[in-house]
Amino acid sequence: MAKRGHARTHGGESSRLQRRYSDLPGSGPGPAPDAAAGKAAPDAGRSKSPRSRNPARAMPIALVQEPPESRRTLDGATVAAGRPPGKISEVQLTKNFLAKEIEARSLKIYTVQQRLGVSPFNWTGEQHKLLIVSARLPFTVIFNEETGVVEYERDPFDTNILDLLASEPGGRFGSASLAQASPVLVGAPVVRRKSDGGLLTNIGEALQEQLDACLRADHNAVPVFPPPGRDIFSDWVIFPLFHYSLPSAETGLGIFDWEGYELVNSKFRDVVLKEYQRGDLVWINDYPLMLLPQQLRQERPDIPVGFYLHCVFPSPEVYRILPQREELLRGILSANIIGFHNFQYVQHFLTSCIHVLGLECTASGIEACEHAGGTHTKVITVPLGIRLEPYQALLNQRETRDRIRELRETFAGKKLLMAVDRLEEKKGIRHKIMAFHKFLQKAPHWAAECVYVQIVEPADEPAEEGESEPGEQQKLLQQVYQMVGEVNSTFGKIGHLPVHFLCQNVSRVDQLALCARASVMIDTPLRDVLPHSAYSYLFCQQEKECGVLILSEFSGSAQSLRAAALCVNPWDTNAFADAIQEALEMDPQDRIELHRYGRNHVTEYTLNHWAVNFLDELLTAKSECESERLQIPPPLDHDKPVSAMRKAGRRVLILGFAGTLMPHSTRMNSGIFPRLPSVLLSNLQVIAEDPNTDLLVLSSLPRDTLAHILANVPCWIIAEGGICYREPEGTSWCSSVEKRDTDEWLGPVKEIMEYFAARTPGSKVMEMESSVSWLYQKTQGDHAAIQSKDLLIHLWAGPLQSAPAEVAIEKDAVNVKPTGVSKAQQLERLLQQICYEEDGDGEKPSKKWLPGNTLVLCVGDFLMRDEDIFVTVQKFFEPEGSERPKPASTPDTDRWDQVITEREPHWTEDMNLEANSMSLGTGYTFLSQLERDQRDEEGLFGLHKSPLESVFADATALPKKVPSEPDLQGATEPDGLVGDSPPFPSNEDDVHGLPLVFTCTVSRKPTRAAHHLSDTNDVAFLIAKLARELRQAKQVSE
C-alpha cells in the first residue's frame, strides 16, 4: 500500500536551501525508488486527516534553525562546522565505543545515587539536549538524483517549536530553566525526487547515510527511517476512531498492521536511545508514537518523557472499541507528563484509564503504578494556538492589502460569509450548506444581500489499493456539488449566486483577505482539535468592522472560544440556520465584544505560549518524579532492627494493619470482628507496654472494629484512613473532621453506593462517621471490577464533582472521605505529640530529640496513595538545620555491600542494581533471562524471600498461619541468625546522634520504602523477635 500524503510547494513562500554532497555514498545518479505520485498544493495551515495530510507536517513539530547561507561541498572550500559528513575515523569509532561504556557505568552510578538519596541531577547545570520527537520532520527534503543536491522546502506557517521558544522574551528559550537546552529534532524525513516530485518510499542505506549527515548539519535533526508501509494502523485506525469515525463491517479493525505500528515505534526508540544522554529531555508528539514512552521507559527507567496528543481523545465508550486499547494507554502512561488541548480530552483520557485499566486517578493525573514506571503521571491541559508572526507579516504586505480592497469592491453592499475546509467528512461541509439553505428558506430576503464563499481544498492523492473509484472524497464532492446547485438554482438570479463554491487550492493571501473582509466565519467541524481558520479569522478582523464567528460545539476550542463565538451543533440544522441569521443581524456593539474576547484569547494563547508552558511543566514533572520514583528494595535483614532494639534507649514502631498484621484475604465485611492470633497479640502487647516504646497502628477500618481487635494492646490507633485516632490509654476517639464538613456529600454518596450494592450480589456499604465505603470482597471478581469502575464515574460526575471529598480505591473497596485527610498527615500530628514538648512559657513547641540509639521502624503494606507514610517518617526524624549524610533506611555502599556479603556470598553490586531496576525496565541487562529466572527461584536475584525462608527446605512448607513462639525459636536459633548474629554494623547516624530509621513494605513490589518483608508471616516473625528482646531485657533488669 502506498504511503499516504504528499508534500506541497508554496512557491515564493517556501525556502529552498541547497546543500551539495557529491562525494557522499549514494549521491550519484541511480534508479529511482518507487513513489506514490501526487501534485503539489498549498497548505492552509490547518489540521488534516492522514488520508490527505502533508506528511512533512507533523503537527505541531519543530524545525530547528535556518542553515547557513553559504553552500558547503566536500569538493569545495567550505565544510560544515569543521566536521565533514564523510567517513568516520578510527578515533571517532573508538570514542563512540568508549562513550557507550562510559554511559553504562554512569548509569550504574546514577542508580546507586538514587538509592542513596543523592540530590537529583540538575538539568540546567550544563548543556543537555531537548529531543523533540515526531512522526515526521516539519519540512520536505527534495533530492536531486542526478547531482546529489539536497534541498529543503518549508512553510513559514508550519509550526517551528525552536523558533517559538527563541522568540519568547526573557532569554533564548523564554524560560530560565530551558536556557541550557540544545534542541534536536527526531523524526522521519519526507523525501521527494526533484525530477517529478514523487515520494521516495524505499530509501537505500547509502542515501540514508547521506540524509543523516545533511539533516544533522543543516537542521540539527536526526532522521528515522521506519520500514515503509508499516504505519497504516495510526492513519487508518487510530486517527479515524479518535475523531469518532467508527469502522464499518467491511473494514473492521483487525485487518490493519498492529505489528507494524509496534515496529515503527521500536525504530524511533532505537534512535532516541542512541541520542539520549542522562539529563536530556524527551518530548514525544502525537498518536503515531503512543507506544514510544513505554518502550523508552523499559530501557531507561530514569528518562524524563513528555507526551502531547495533538488530536482529539474520544469518549471512553468510543475508545474501548480499539482491540489494542490497553497497550496504547500503557504506552503513554509511562510518560512523566501527558498534555491535551482541552479539559474535556483530559476527562476522557482519565475515564478511559479507569474503565480499561482500573487505575486510580486524582485531580492531577494517575497515581503511581507499574504502568507509569513507578511514578505519578501528571495529566494537564495546555491549549494549542497559532503563531501570529507569519499572519501579521502577510497582512502587512501590499499584495494582501490590495486583495482586501478588491474584495470590498466586488462584494460591496453585501454581507460575506466564508468557510475554508479540507475535503473531509469530519469537516462538516454538507452540514454547513444544509444550514445555509435552511436559513435562506426562513429569511429569503437575505438571498440577494449575502454571499457564502465555501472553499474546499481537494485531496491530492490517488485512490488507495482496495478503494473503488471515485473514492470517498469524490463521493463527498459530488454530494456537495448537488447541494450547492440546489441552493443556487432556488435562490440565485442572473448576476448573483448566493453560494460560491471553490474546490481548489486558494493562496494564503486570498484566504487572509477573505478573513479580513468576511462578516461571518463558519467553522463547524464534526470533530477537530484546533480551528485554525477560526483563529486566523479572529486575528485578521479589524475591531471597527469586526465580524462574527460561528463555531461547532465539537471543536476542540469550543470551551475556550465560547464567549467569542456563536456555538452550534452542526447536526441541528434549524438551530444552525438561526445562528447564521443572528450573526448577520447582530448589533455592532455585541459583535465588538465577541471579537475583543476572541482576539485577546488568540493573542494570549499562542503557540509560543503553548511550547514554553508544556516544557516548563515537563521540567517540573521531571524533578517531582525523580524524588518519587518507586523501586523494588532489598529485603529487610531481621538482624538489623533486632540488634538496634537490643541497644536502643527509645523506640517508635509504626505498623499497618491489613496486609501487615492480618492478611488481605481476611473477611472484613461479615459483621463479625476478625481476630489476630493470640501469639501476635501477646507480642504486640509486650511491645506497647514497654515504657520506652511507642507503638502506632494505622488502618482504614472503622474505629469500633480496631478498638475491639486491639482492646488489650495499649497503642496509638489511627482509624478510618486518618480521620480519627485514639491514644494508648484512652477510650474516646479524636476526629480531625467536623461533621458539618461532610453533610454536603456523605448522604448522596451513600445513596449511590447503596444503589450499586443492591445490584452487586455480595457487596455492602459501610458508613463511618466521616466517610463511607463500598465493599465488594465477596463479589465475583469480573463483575465487581466493572461495577467499581462505573461507581467511580457516577461519583465523580455526581456528588463529588465539586465537593470537598476524594475517592480512595482500596483492596476490594471504594472509600470516599474528606479531602486533605490521610494516614500520613494524621501520623505526623501524632509523632509531634510524641516527640515534641511545650516550652515553659507556652511558646511554640520544640522538637524533643530522641537519643542517637533510638530505633524507628515503620512496616506496612500500604496503598500506593499512602506510600507517603514512609517519606513522612523519614523526613520527620531529620533534625532541622542538619544535613543527614544518608537516610538511615538506605544503606551506604560500604555497609550495603558488607551486609549483602554476609547474607549471600556471591551477591554482587551489579546484581543489586539489576534487582532494583527489574520492575522498571530491561536496560541494565547483565545476565540472560534464563539465568535471571534460575537465580530468582533461589531467592538470590530478586531478593523476594525473607532471611528465615532459607531455613525451610521447601518454601511451600512455610506456615500459613502466624507462627507461635516455639516456631520462632526453632526457625532462628539453629543457624545462628539471632543468637550468634554478628554485631550490627556501626551506623553513621550513631555518630551524628540521629535516630536509626527503617521503612519497610510487605511483599516484593515497587515502593518508597527502603526494605521489604515477604508477607504477614515474615512480619509476625520480626515482631516476635522484637518482643523477645524486650522480654529478655526485662528479665535481665529484674
Automatic annotation (TrEMBL):
Region annotated Disordered, chain positions: 1-83, 961-990
Molecular function terms, GO-annotated: alpha,alpha-trehalose-phosphate synthase (UDP-forming) activity; trehalose-phosphatase activity
One BP term from GO: trehalose biosynthetic process
Biased composition (Low complexity): 33-44
CDD domains, per the entry: GT20_TPS (cd03788)
GO CC field: cytosol
Pfam family, one: Trehalose_PPase
PANTHER family, alphabetized: BCDNA.GH08860 (PTHR10788:SF106), TREHALOSE-6-PHOSPHATE SYNTHASE (PTHR10788)
Similarity comment text for this entry: In the N-terminal section; belongs to the glycosyltransferase 20 family.
The protein, known as: Alpha,alpha-trehalose-phosphate synthase (UDP-forming)
